[in-house]
Amino acid sequence: MAIIDRVKYDGPGDVFVWRWPGDALVWGTQVIVNQAQEALFLKDGKVLDVLGPGSHTLKTANIPLLKHLVNIPFGDETPFAAEIYYINKAVNMALKWGTREPIPVQEPQFQLFVPVRAFGQLGLKVMDGKKLVSTMVGTLPVFDANQVLDYFRGHLMTHIKDYIAEKLVQDKIPLLTISAHLTEISSAIKEKVGGEFGRFGIEVVNFYLESISVPPEDETVKRLKKMLSDKAEFETLGEQRYRTVRTFDTLQTAAGNEGGAAGVMGLGVGMGMGMGAGAGMGQMMGQAIGAQTSPVACQCGTANPSGAKFCTQCGRPLSAPTCPKCRASMAPGAKFCSACGQSAAS
To answer: Helices H, strands E: what count in the chain?
Structure first.
């Protein structure tokens, strides 16, 4: 058994607890404890003393309880077994956390379950080294930040999910705008999770919820964005204008897909029957279609296609005729002027 006359720990800062790997101490061994550290002495699983920062020489005056538990028949140089745990008392400020898988959260306005990811960081500090070693560390040689986060991940995710869902429902906040409430949510979650960490001797110094995001490629997210866009447009335009815009959007799409007026008419009949808007839609579509298909009559009685400039039968111009006497406009095909009675044939 190698006799150790000096014990010290200078490991990385993300280690919360480090157990000295040896077990052969003698009276007179130097135990060095750095700033923001403390050293626990254990014998047979029982904490005998706690040493703060500084250089400590093992002797009966320092650790009287150990003297009673160690049998020293051959003087102070006889080695004895004891455990030393170094506790990091500094604040670990930048511990990253995040959801491994999206959390389903119900959007309050449209009752859709949307996958949500959350990310952030927290700062932890060991407040009670005895409690931490006895309740969580046990005989582990090293207990670091990753192990702490792994242990508490389920606890964190449950509270994060529950509070976000609660916040959305109570305050009726659209999920896609919840990022404006990150500070408030962070403070509330810190209070909720602090008690569980405290049971193991750890204090949550700070908690930050840095982002709440949804996967843009998700079909539910796309539906939600479309619904919110339509809702915003409805509130901006008002009900009547919104319906009018939507009607013309539908007519334009149908005309392009179905080949013009015939397709529009077929769609209009279906919409009128299905939506209870037959009269208004029929009148509106009739005007639109009539403007495109009304024939143009010539003085010779021939009905020419809409848009024709000359008669296909006699070649006369199809612009509105004028009275040869008073020059008033006459309706196409009229035989007498409605202003002065002059015959159009004169």
So the answer is: 8, 14
